[in-house]
Amino acid sequence: MEQLPAGLTTTSYALLGQLALRPWTVYEMTRNVARTLHWFWPRAESVLYQETRRLADRGLATATTEPGSRGRPRTIYAITPDGIAALRSWLSTAPAPVTLHFDAVLRVHLAPYGKKEDLVSALESARTDAEGLIRQALVIGTEFVEGHHQFQSQVPIRAILFDYLWTFGLSTWMWADRSLSIVASWPSLNPGSAAEAAAVDSIRSQLEGWPATGIDLEK
């Protein structure tokens, strides 16, 4: 395996992947990032602009200025052979461990120290965000099914990604909606012994309903 260029981050490689798709202005690329990459590798738009320019400075991308609309110049970025080589080298390394950075779940974890309405607000926020993901996935999935997605030739790989995002969005929405129904019946965040018993039963039923996944739980 070739040595990776020093100083690049995972975001660097994510953007090299975007440039491997086709040449873009950064504005065009950020719009494309908002459709898919944003849902599992979110970064501020300012970071995308800075990082793309840095890739060009490192010789991993080219930056070509050409006339744009209304006579305003625009810069088109494209990946270079060195950029392709760096991306391929990075893809051959082991991924970092899975992490979950989910503000609403953190607020559920800390909910005993707040108010019931705070917990409700966190769950409603999670449900709204999940609905946004589902709606975006529906648009993209329909484009693939109808055969006019801009990267239609990549559908075998994109279907694997779609499977994850669609499943994640639906499971998050259903979790938040189900939790809101449960919390709605509580008079407060100390709902009493009946709610405690129901909670234990819920955990027990999920443990007993463990699906046949091939995971050895005895290890």
Describe the structure concisely:
The protein has 219 residues and is mainly alpha-helical.
Q: State mean pLDDT (0 to 100 scale).
A: 93
Number of helices: 8
Listing every helix as H and every strand as E from the N terminus to the C terminus, the arrangement reads HHHEEHHHHH
Mind describing the biggest β-sheet?
2 strands, antiparallel
Helical proportion, percent range: 55-70%
The total strand number stands at 2
Distance between the termini: 33 Å
Shape estimate: elongated
Topology:
Layout: H1 10-21, H2 26-35, H3 45-57, E1 61-67, E2 73-79, H4 81-91, H5 103-109, H6 116-146, H7 155-184, H8 193-208
Antiparallel strand pairs: 1-2
Structure description:
The chain has 219 residues and is mainly alpha-helical. The protein has two domains: 10-91, Arc Repressor Mutant, subunit A (Orthogonal Bundle), CATH 1.10.10; 103-208. Helices cover 59% and strands 6% of the residues. It contains eight helices and two strands, in the order H-H-H-E-E-H-H-H-H-H. It has helices at 10-21, 26-35, 45-57, 81-91, 103-109, 116-146, 155-184, 193-208, and strands spanning 61-67, 73-79. Strands 1-2 form a two-stranded antiparallel sheet. Strand 1 (61-67) and strand 2 form a beta hairpin. Helix 1 packs across helix 3 and helix 1 crosses helix 4. The longest helix has 31 residues, at 116-146.
